[in-house]
Amino acid sequence: MAEVVAAAPQRVAARPRLRGTALLGTLPFFAYVTIFLIIPTLVVVIGAFADDNGGATLDNIEALGNQYILDAFGRSIALSAISALAGAVLGAVLAYALATAAPNGLLRRAVTAAAGVLAQFGGVTLAFAFLATIGLSGFVTVFLQDHGIDIYSGGVWLFELPGLTLVYTYFQIPLMVIVFLPALDGLRPQWREAAESLGGTTWHYWTRVAGPLLGPAFLGSALLLFANAFSAYATAAALVSQGNPIVPLQIRSALTSEVVLGQANVGKAMALGMVIVVSVVMGLYTLLQRRTAKWLG
Amino acid sequence: MAGVIARRARKQRALRWAVLIVLGVFFLLPLAAMVEFSTRDPGTWPLLADWPKLSATYPDLADGIVASLLQAALTALLMLLLLVPTAVWVRLRLPRLRRFVEFLCLLPLTIPAIVLVVGLAPVYAWVTYFLGGSSVTLVFAYTVLVLPYAYRAIDAGLSAIDVRTLAEAARSMGAGWATVMGRVVLPNIRSAVLSAAFLTVALVLGEYTIASLLNRTNLQVAIAFLGKSSATMSVAVSLTALVLAFVLLLLLSLFGRASSPASPTASKEPAA
């Protein structure tokens, strides 16, 4: 006890006596975050359980059971899952191709830099890129028509879910490369050599060594891709011309259209539903990421 | 054994090129199509380069471009003013709060922009009441949007230097907190600050959700609006915006690479 007291004076400089004044320094940050992040979050959470007059109600949550909302959630989840799966598989193959290239080579640097840019390439710009490519008068559409192939013989699918899936995959693959490449780099060549010196084949190596090691990383990355697609709004808003097939577009219509009496807060309930889905997915991602770090960190 | 490895290397090389060519076509095709599409009308690109004529022909587009550039610059500024002093201060004086600040900064990752808009609508009713309905006010929302990315960049920069020792050295020689920030800490995390700013600019230039739903304008809103009347022009502007973001992020990745081997020595440099 005496030593502690004796040591105390030297620590005064390191530990300020007035914690209150130290807290003042963070005041601008906390005030800002409260107004523009915490309050909007609370507006959504509380609004989901409030009626038009501010009273508590579960009607909005029950409204989520409406068929059109359930359908929108179903389509959103299907779109996110398929584009995440396609992006994860193709992105993992591309990442593997890069991992076998020279670590500091031009190829790898150029492709990872391009992936960094393309992963951010979403929204309206991407929608227009695909309109110019496979829109009704797009480059590829016209080229194929000149050669007797009509990609829209079965209907114009670009502005519906199949089109959205294709366009989403365009930004999912580069994101997969970015998040999965570090895990592939964590695979040590010695492990493969060890498997071989014990008589294992390439098949054995991939199914018994590399597969189980990369499994959590792959699954985690796929979940991140899912959350990425699930949250996306701008691409769909610019591309889909009719109806509101997915949840973000349903929320838009709840925000912008003349609101039916008693339905004002259904949009907030849908928003809360989105947050819950994304939080669960991101939570699983964090868990898997921790598991990956154990071996491939 | 050597034969096996050589054969595997050959196989891997063949796979590598096959994958790169197939996916390369997938990724380059839309970009090539944009070039082809936007040159169908030969007047498009000259018009885009002629600012006075452009703003006379498409006033909405010109407004959007100006608004976006202003938003990008101001968001980067506000983000740095808010984040750098707080991150440094928390490291120096309130280390226990670090986890909490990190949690708050990463929170927007779990809140999709479309959800944030729902909550921001009432907040912006007040913003409009106090500051008016100008598109520049979107800066407040954008700063929240870029918080996770900017925080990670700045936090990584601060982790690479010994902030405490630097600050104590400066303080013991009589420097005030402003000097510590501006002349000691900031020069040492220059590349982190730059990368946070670049990311911010790239994200703001691509933002559509919040601007369109809060009835304000920016580049993406203008492009989407233009798409209804002049498809060629909107594709040309999209391509320009994309190339701009491409160059910005490419510069960022080059900066990051150039500065990372130098960072251990950078912290040893005399800070002044």
UniProtKB/TrEMBL annotation, chain A:
Lineage of source species: Bacteria, Bacillati, Actinomycetota, Actinomycetes, Micromonosporales
Transmembrane parts of this sequence: 21-50, 77-99, 111-144, 164-184, 205-227, 269-288
InterPro entries: MetI-like, MetI-like_sf
PANTHER family: INNER MEMBRANE ABC TRANSPORTER PERMEASE PROTEIN YDCU-RELATED, INNER MEMBRANE ABC TRANSPORTER PERMEASE PROTEIN YDCU-RELATED-RELATED
Record-annotated ABC transmembrane type-1 domain positions: 73-287
Membrane disposition: Multi-pass membrane protein
Top-level taxon of origin: Bacteria
Protein name as it appears in the record: ABC transporter permease
Keywords: Cell membrane, Membrane, Transmembrane, Transmembrane helix, Transport
Secretion signal, residue range per the UniProt entry: none
Annotated family: Belongs to the binding-protein-dependent transport system permease family. CysTW subfamily.
Subcellular localization: Cell membrane
Automatic annotation (TrEMBL), chain B:
Protein name, UniProt field: ABC transporter permease
Cell compartment(s), UniProt: Cell inner membrane; Cell membrane
TM stretches of this protein: 14-35, 65-88, 100-121, 127-151, 191-211, 231-255
Signal peptide limits: none
Database matches in Pfam families: BPD_transp_1
Sorted UniProt keywords: Cell inner membrane, Cell membrane, Membrane, Transmembrane, Transmembrane helix, Transport
InterPro entries the UniProt entry points to: MetI-like, MetI-like_sf
Chief place where the protein resides: membrane
Family: Belongs to the binding-protein-dependent transport system permease family.
Top-level taxonomic group: Bacteria
Domain ABC transmembrane type-1, first and last residues per copy: 65-252
Protein's membrane topology: Multi-pass membrane protein
